[in-house]
Amino acid sequence: MAKPSIPKGTRDFSPAEVAKRNYIFSIIKANFEKFGFQPIETPTFENSETLMGKYGEEGDRLIFKILNSGDYLSKAKDTFLANKDSVKLTSQISEKALRYDLTVPFARYVVQHQNEIEFPFKRYQIQPVWRADRPQKGRFREFYQCDADVVGSTSLWQEVELVQLYDSVFSSLGLKGVTIKINNRKILSGIAEVIGASDKLIDFTVALDKLDKIGEDGVKKEMLEKGISEAALEKVQPLFNFTGTISEKIEKLSALLSSSAEGMKGVEELQFICDNITSLGLEKSELDLDVTLARGLNYYTGAIFEVAAPKTVAMGSIGGGGRYDDLTGIFGLKNMSGVGISFGLDRIYLVLEELNLFPETVTSTSKALFLNFGQEEALYAMQAIMQLRKAGIKVEMYPDNAKIGKQFQHADKRGIPFAIIVGGDEIANNQYALKDLASGEQKKVSLDELKELLK
Hints:
By secondary structure, the chain is of the alpha+beta class. The protein is built from 18 helices and 16 strands. β12 (368-370), α15 and β13 form a beta-alpha-beta unit.
């Protein structure tokens, strides 16, 4: 029989790992609610038509398709089968797909429930998503996203608050040196217009978004392959060495985009967001204007964000998001602007682990293990266990009347700090022998004393 395994890009999680993940979840959730966001959940899978065409050509390829139930080939056209036309064949044999992110399902939710929602609507969602990507460090095929979005308002104060939300979460996690990068898709549209490549905007932004992965030469090569001219690349050259403070960068952009109304609108929006964040201040994060930031998702129309981990850690982005003015429009609801951000839980986990930022208490197990000496002793122990648990103290009893050495060894392997010994003498005197497994010290106490010591 073959050794059991799991698909590449997925993981099992041990109790300690789950405890650490839950610690991150709890901090993100607490901050979401502190900022006024409300929770929703959407199905694991959506109708294919809900997802396809919303993430660009590259995104569509990474969506996991679900085969129709039953004889899924019965409705497939013979010509598609004979020609091995996978694109047309897929639409006939698969009507559903696993969600690629939480934003598009959220847009569908807003349209479907628009008569029940009070706008502006601030929602958060913490659920897994799936992408048929090539697995590598920090990149998985199944992973959690933690999203916060506001729909029904065009106010740029929402962008300011979302930057503050990023900073609040990372401050709560004790993570210093995080860089929140910001740009605006209107600026990218303006640049494409200025260099004469407006008809290649998607190709331009998709290639530019890969700068940190394939470098300047790789980006230029891809742009040329997509039909963007050499002359256009010469005009865009300043972007690859765009340095200075945020104010200096905005000044340079204003000069570069002076002939583009769309581009100047983007500059104006960036100025508002950056000026107000500078006035309000951030606790542990830094804000940086990155003109090469494109975020290769087609639905962004305004401000875009990407969060870089501290430079001491070799990790990709740990968060991202942006403004989308027409996302719900593709589902029939016009004039519903939204803006949102996402936290990459799995990458944040790896960063905290590498920097040793998880508190020791996160993975703490039961506070004490009651040893099992037999039926009468176990019943006496269980009566105490009930009272301790009611007091909020994590305790348990070894289930079998096994050798005492084995029970002590179990406590040691589990990292349980105390053992509680209950024998005939303890029962007769209504007491408990509490043993500190680190020091070896042992003393007899009452139940009330036991509660206080274990607290």
